[in-house]
Amino acid sequence: xxxxxxxxxxxxxxxxxxxxxxxxxxxxxxxxxxxxxxxxxxxxxxxxxxxxxxxxxxxxxxxxxxxxxxxxxxxxxxxxxxxxxxxxxxxxxxxxxxxxxxxxxxxxxxxxxxxxxxxxxxxxxxxxxxxxxxxxxxxxxxxxxxxxxxxxxxxxxxxxxxxxxxxxxxxxxxxxxxxxxxxxxxxxxxxxxxxxxxxxxxxxxxxxxxxxxxxxxxxxxxxxxxxxxxxxxxxxxxxxxxxxxxxxxxxxxxxxxxxxxxxxxxxxxxxxxxxxxxxxxxxxxxxxxxxxxxxxxxxxxxxxxxxxxxxxxxxxxxxxxxxx
Amino acid sequence: xxxxxxxxxxxxxxxxxxxxxxxxxxxxxxxxxxxxxxxxxxxxxxxxxxxxxxxxxxxxxxxxxxxxxxxxxxxxxxxxxxxxxxxxxxxxxxxxxxxxxxxxxxxxxxxxxxxxxxxxxxxxxxxxxxxxxxxxxxxxxxxxxxxxxxxxxxxxxxxxxxxxxxxxxxxxxxxxxxxxxxxxxxxxxxxxxxxxxxxxxxxxxxxxxxxxxxxxxxxxxxxxxxxxxxxxxxxxxxxxxxxxxxxxxxxxxxxxxxxxxxxxxxxxxxxxxxxxxxxxxxxxxxxxxxxxxxxxxxxxxxxx
Lengths: 324, 304
Ligand SMILES: [Fe+2]
Hints:
The complex is a heterodimer.
Chain A lengths: L4 E7 L4 H4 L5 H20 L3 E11 L3 E4 L5 E4 L10 E4 L4 H13 L4 E4 L8 H10 L6 E8 L4 H18 L3 E6 L21 H15 L3 H6 L1 H8 L9 H9 L5 E11 L2 E10 L41 H6 L1
Parallel strand pairs in A: 1-8, 2-7, 2-8, 3-6
Antiparallel strand pairs in A: 1-10, 4-5, 9-10
Helix pairs in contact in A: 3-5, 5-9
Chain B lengths: L5 E7 L5 H6 L13 H13 L7 E10 L4 E4 L3 E7 L8 E7 L2 H13 L4 E4 L8 H10 L7 E6 L2 H4 L2 H22 L2 E6 L26 H16 L2 H6 L1 H7 L8 H8 L8 E8 L2 E9 L5 H6 L1
């Protein structure tokens, strides 16, 4: 059992559960879900919180927040009318440096960012305000690279684990993400909020069913499908669950708890906790391989490239050959 | 009857933070040894050729104020703050102070709403103005002596497709023109975007090392040139017609609708544009281009 990561959480990043939960029953449920998840963190008592935010896109590799005490008055660029969020966080700069070092050793382009005024994304702000309101624990925040795909994301997760182990720290890892991410494209009244489509809703519920059974890796293996089915394509792929399973362990031995599921301006917001366990849904055979070192994308899905045109073959590049 | 407002010029005004970093203005904390001179000198020439005495306000449409629900406009008269680029924080940490023409913003908001678009005024004084708006405005007018109107991009390309983006940007442009004409003001438009937009995903030790700078691929360069040729020839309707193909093939930052909005606002000029510069920044294709309403502007006289 992974005794470095004591808890995994999935939480939404839109500001309603923090700024105006009372305006919609579902938003209140999500808010209360955050509070329940906070209690789980308190009981598990990790040394640090690690946020992986789908709402912090990076382009030049991966970025890790490392300013010891970022402080700002944050306003969401879309939901600015819901109000301003004052924050001051305690960041574990030592761990941030450790993740960068471990990431570089595994072939990633990765660096810290430590500037006053750096725009920490709404999702990270919401998660830390609700899960760690008095900075009981230090945190780090990790960006989500726009172009990175599975292999790179898995290695990114493993680099975090390397750094935690090297520093002898335990952590709760938090994926800031919605399930389906399609917002309403017209302004709505809070009481009229609903999941954008029945299809999004069905997919969300199926994922939550799996997560409630502790089937993290099964969900992670569905990521490419999730991207196709219920994600607006702003980035290369849906990566949060790849990252999470890489950090927590790529299997299904978890106890899952779904605290809340509700529409957040059309998207599917859920608060879910996963606790490493000896039981859960056990071992299965998975389609996609575990990756240790990042050596470039293998373009396994491109299918048309020959060896000479494609990038240098990485481990397991037989898949590439099968397709060409 | 009060005088009719005019669009005195429109400019394609890309916003890579590298250009501010390279210039070392006092507002920016990061300091450089220069870089990207051709583009910066292009911006200088654009600035020199604009009729500043006539310009009452600058209207800028930015890909980096991303509002997936509706089009938003700044609705607070004065902003002061610090803008840090989320992708390039090592290059851009800029202390800004700017005035907003709230009256004109509100007029565009109302005209858009009347045209059936989803519109919203941004009235939170704590709001941090997006870096696309700040960078394009700084580079076009480093003096910051004109109020601005900042328009968000509602990203319908991501939520629907490029055709919906085009339709909405066109409608927003028409609404903008109506509002400007009714306001009696003379304005400069800025379309704050690069053309081809595939970045390198790595950066050298020295970001301004010009020996490392080039366009990401020849295919992207060819697409950029295709568009620029149309600008120079005054074929802007055709340019907007090929925009879906260009945006997809050149992975272009035109996906935000800024350039389509500007052309629509200007009524699709048929006269040649002045291309002040073209160059790459961390692999992306950037052109600085001006459309001048003045028929006596040299670029238009040559064409006559
Ligand atoms: Fe940009």
